[in-house]
Amino acid sequence: MISTLRTLSATLLIGGSLLSSCNSTKQSAEQADLIVYNGTVYTVNDTFEKAEAFAVRDGKIVAVGTTADIQEQYTATEELDADGKAIYPGLIDAHSHFYRYGLGLQSADLVSTQSFKEVVQQLVAQREKYPEADWITGRGWDQNDWAEKEFPTKDTLDQLFPETPVIITRVDGHAALANQKALDLAGVTPQTKMVGGLVEVKDSNMTGILIDNAVDMVTSKIPEADEDEKRQALKNAEENVFAVGLTSVDDAGLDKSTVDLIDAMQQQGHLQIRVYAMLNPTKENKDHYFKNGPYKTDRLNVRSFKVYADGALGSRGANLLKSYSDRDNHYGFLLASEQEFRDLAREMNEHGFQMNSHAIGDSANRLLLDIYGNVLGGKNDKRWRIEHAQIVNPADMNKFGQYSIIPSVQPTHATSDMYWAGDRLGNERIKHAYPFKELMQQNGYIPLGSDFPVEDINPFYTFHAAVARQDAKNYPEGGFQMENALSREDALRGMTVWAANSNFEENEKGSIEAGKFADFILVDKDLMTIAPAEMRGVQVLRTYVNGKQVYKK
């Protein structure tokens, strides 16, 4: 009996010691706000390591490791069991038009229309939905998708809407169709001429087609949205991009008033998305920011200007070294004089701002690369960017590396344009179009974006187009010019840490590492292992910004 009591006493003592040890371990564990565990975590760090878990405190990642290690070292008020699913850093769209996309959600959606007749039907429906609107606007048509691939004319719009101004913008934003009422309000006539733009005239009459700077003459007459509409546009855009896994967007072309509104909404807690703002090079913007310098918060970064060198290939506005293959003696055009671009580059350099220039044609790319090179002088860390870099003459390719110029590309442009780009460029020149891998090799990295709303906001379309070089129909079999496809690892880097690097933000986001913002996404299928045909169908289950859930499917 005494022996039994002693044994029981010893057992209780040992058990108490174990319980005391467990309690001691828990009491010594660090407090976190969130623990994510049991996941397939792609850290996208320098060695592209995978992990299982990480801890978040005060909006930042504090530790990354195995589930066992993180749960032993930390205790948290919230835990997320990832159930083995893939987790990536929050995705970054390195070139978009976030604010414009939000405003466009209030216009007729003309994307994927298969004929001008279908466009007209959408506009009639838009008018019925908003009968009191001062203007009828729409965006997204592409005549290259129609059986008749010529630009439409304004005749039908004049008949249907004689007293209401109408302007509908082509998918690339570099061409538009306006009715007579809109042209009259803007004072556009068959005699109107301008640098970097065109009013199309046939038989002495305007067709309604406007190219590049001519579009601005009409759109400038559209009444500006009021502040409530602007706020709602930003909120609508944010809601949609969070649902597809974007946590940061580079907005290419903003005015100070819009930047100030974004900043105010972020400071008020009404907008969570992180924005890298590229400013329009207007006098107001330059006067303010050259005087005050770059502006930076955790969610907003203003240190660059967006410059347009030329137009788009689809509307034959891209500036080419040799004539368009499908239009003799037509080379596209620059949107400003060479001297203006040189002056802008000098100003950007003097005031410490990044210069990000839209350049699509091989002539525009050559000009901007040479201007950049003249200012930058050689290897540097200014991180000046060429946006799009769609057609690059082989003689100019090494200039990206020589002058540390970043090519910022949008893979879905290749898979959207591939059906007709060869007609514009011919069999030889097309080989030097959309050369993503070759561009990536110049500096060892390449940021990826979508250019939404020119293309879809979904970053998984970007990933698929970069890796498989195919469109939504998985065409063409075997991929389009696969010698310039990116690996899956490089594509994910391009949408995370490389995009962050192009924004001078690689130390604060773009990978799942201690000290960086806790921006991450949980998805239903792993992009790194599934078949290419499944990539576009990947669904975001949860999106987190600063360790806070901003979207749940």
From TrEMBL:
Residues 78-551 form the Amidohydrolase domain. Its EC number is 3.5.-.-. CDD domains: YtcJ_like. This is Amidohydrolase. It comes from Pontibacter toksunensis. GO terms for molecular function: hydrolase activity. The keyword Translocase does not apply. Signal peptide: none annotated.
